[in-house]
Amino acid sequence: MAFVYENIVQAVDSVNETGLGVKFTNADSIFKSIYSVREQAKENLKTLLFTRIGERYMQPTFGTNLLNLLFEPNTIQIKEDVSEILIDPINVWLPYISIENINVITAEEDPTLPHQLSITITYNIENFSTDSIVVYANNDNTISIV
């Protein structure tokens, strides 16, 4: 097994910005640095949404039950359930994010929807602009985020 040593001083010196965090999904590499508060807040929200309660060591109340709910049968109650399971954890763990609106659309309501369920979370970052995350529960039992 061979090792190649690279001069990392040049790489560090060429970056003029300080990263706030990392994105976990990127086509070019495993981790991509985040340089804005807006991006970091969005990644923090994604992490909270897709961490199950009890999954994080030493923080057993961190997370939501969204993953458990996404592939449950679509009922009229699902809209209220989604709002209930998201609002409290976001207020506790991400107090700088305020939820403006949670819109849940099922395939029964919109037959043109290519997914089983679409959840749009519109949020406002304190002292910044409004943004949104869209979560899709797909027919092939996968989840996608935009």
Write a structural description.
The longest helix is centred in the middle third of the chain and has 16 residues, at 78-93. The chain has helices at 8-14, 37-49, 66-70, 78-93, and strands at residues 21-23, 32-34, 97-106, 117-125, 130-137, 143-145. The protein has four helices and six strands; from the N terminus they run H-E-E-H-H-H-E-E-E-E.
Query: What sequence of helices (H) and strands (E) makes up the elements?
Result: HEEHHHEEEE
Rounded to the nearest angstrom, the radius of gyration is: 18 Å
**How many DSSP-defined strands?**
6
Which range does the strand content fall in? 15-25%
Largest β sheet strand count, sense and barrel closure: 4 strands, antiparallel
CATH topology value: Nuclear Transport Factor 2, Chain: A
Overall number of structural domains: 1
Structural class: alpha+beta
CATH class descriptor: Alpha Beta
- CATH architectural group: Roll
